[in-house]
User: Fold these one by one.
Assistant:
Number 1:
Amino acid sequence: MARARSEERRGEIVRAAVEVIAERGYRGASLGTVAERVGLTQQGLLHYFPTKEALLVAVLEERDRWDTGGGSRAAADTWRLDLLASLVEYNAMRPGIVQTFSALLGESVTDGHPAREFFTERYAQVRSEMAAVLRAEFGDRLPSGLTPEQAAPLLTAVMDGLQYQWLLAPESVDMPAAFRAFLTLLRGPEEG
């Protein structure tokens, strides 16, 4: 019972941290602000997350769980290109989460950032998963002649790059439509 309550409280803290980071950015988010949102002192919050970095990683892991339906990172064989398009549509309905992820990703490229290792490992895994998705869809060669391993970083870059463009100009960038257009490029000309 105590363990379940502790996990529930950790979840509340992570959700509050997502909100605070979305509002203020990682650097502007303080443990004190997060603690206040959930009715704890900063010392009380440190009982659940001993450092700001530990909380940050929990926020990033939670975002990935949301994207994979609550489990661990999705197995490569569960994704298909049409499901990736659905994920892009889903992201377009939750700008706060996309903003949090994008801000943390952008900040993580600096030396010593606490999320750098998380994103480095995440992108290695995502590229591998995207290569598997592309291989399942096209075999060993895409219509362009690229291998799935060559196209996987491009697919990943388009997904994340569209998020940045959409966040900056949501009225000008239709993220789901642009991603579907990219899938058309991947699939090549219709055979007829």
Number 2:
Amino acid sequence: MHGERVLFLDGEALVIDKPAGLPVDPPRDGSLSLENHLESLKFGFQRWPKAVHRLDRDTSGCLLLSRNPKAHARLQQAFEQGLVSKRYVALLDGVVDGTSGLIEMALGKVSTAETGWRMVEDPNGKKSRTNWRVLEIKDGRSLVEFLPETGRTHQIRVHAASGLGAPVVGDGVYGKADGLGMMLHAQRLIVPRPGKPDVLAEAPLPERFAKAGFADEAVPVADVAPTADAVTTPDSTDG
């Protein structure tokens, strides 16, 4: 993992800009994962850092790792207490109705032999909430900011496809595959720490967004401060 991928580093925490295509957990087929890069992320410590949360394989952006067991427990507690602020940016395949809003949906997991597993709206599932706002519309596609209040598996991907009626570009599960890859990026992460500065990291939009015609200028810098709604409670992943 090259040094330019490191967005934040101190004695407790490390935030990297995870590239799309790299799984956090080792795949069953034995292919490369984050684990193969942990040795290069020790930065003078003897222990490997440990992921505090998860991003889907094809979601890029801010991923938090702890640098020692005590820090890991404290950082996980921040997630459990709903204190973590996350901001995602996604390119959606379609023009969404409206300019902003809140998606509330109970999600459950289904699985079939033909299509594998996915998350769907399920009245008996876990509640999920995501604030959203349109940043830019171009060529029939919408660049949208997502501020998740919960952290359910595939939450943003399902909320885009089912809640807004426009799946994330390149999402082969809830939409269709695209040569650009999946256009979902964890752009900002803020983790408060009592008595210490916040863990604050921002990951620039990857090159695939520029290829689609959307550059960093489309993401307003003035919006980097956390909002009261931009908190995330723990589960598996948002993306």
Number 3:
Amino acid sequence: MKKVVNILTVTGFMFLGAVQSTYAQAAEADKTFHQELKQRFIEGDPKFMGIVLVALILGLAIAIERIIYLNMATTNTKKLVASVDDALSSGGVEAAKEVCRNTKGPVASIFYQGLERADEGLEAAEKAVVGYGGVQMGLLEKNVSWLSLFIALAPMLGFMGTVIGMIEAFDKIAVANDISPAVVAGGIKIALLTTVFGLVVAIILQIFYNYIVSKIDSIVNNMEDASISLIDLLAKYKK
């Protein structure tokens, strides 16, 4: 949980710093940052800014849920392997299964499935470990594809707002038959604000995504190493 808090804190500061630097030149001395951000959000056309904001909220919800789940799924595999080894030596398969039942995480679950098939031979135990390992990998990667979707969607929505803002600017030029800055400023402002907001959202979610993927890879590697160790323990126990 400490890692989750640290990551959220760092990301929050990065988000605030990025938005503040973007709007620093336009900020007025008598306005708070919250008021300035609200004003820019409205100026950027709430229709598109709101959709990008929803993508940010949903993406953060998925990222935080995955980070909490992955941290809870992290197990000290060396300690677990040693405990299972001791249990097999002292109490047999049933004692080892009890150790796995009392241990949280996917590695302990995989061990339990392998021990369940231990009486059927090493080959059956190995198949159970491999099969259930695939199930656990699916649980670890659950909803990560949605997070990648929001990463791709946020800047695309921002660019869509950019295109629509430029279209509005050219429409005003056609109506007024004038290309002065006052005529096109509104449309260009919408275009720039939606682009910036979409990119900031994508950057924030990308940081979370990379952390989650690296965490999944670490857990999967531990699962594979521990599974090999379990088969070795069962082979030693069968002798």
